[in-house]
Amino acid sequence: MYKYKLHIIIIIFVLLILVGCTDHRSNIKPEAESGVMDLTQIQLKNDVVSVDGKWEFFWNQLLDPDEVEAGVLNDYVQIPSSWNKYTDNKVHSGYGYATYRLEFITKENVRLALKIPRIFTAYKLWVNGELIASAL
Known about the structure:
By secondary structure, the protein is of the alpha+beta class. It has one domain. Helices cover 14% and strands 24% of the residues. The strands form three sheets. It has a three-stranded antiparallel beta sheet with strand order 3-2-4, with no helix packed on it. Strand 6 (123-127) and strand 7 (130-135) form a beta hairpin. The model has no long low-confidence stretch (mean pLDDT 78).
């Protein structure tokens, strides 16, 4: 009987240690609004942030960063989604091309990392005016 109680106490002790060692992430989940994501309320060193929300959407325009201001903004589209589910009083087919843009606001000049999932389409990814990834 004594050994049984000791095992229960050890199991409870181990569970308490494991619960105390969990990864504490911020409950703040920013979402992009009107093509801007505000990251000033989270600790960027410890948090992983999804870039979901409303991104700028330029339909039938492939714009380099220096051309975006001259482009015609069609609207803000919810990401993740596909553009043929999006309507701006138009239905877009699965064929076509577009430019999406999202700007980030941070408290200080920090280095951010971006995890790019496998994308089975052609794309160019620009960060601060620099082409950092592409698949053509």
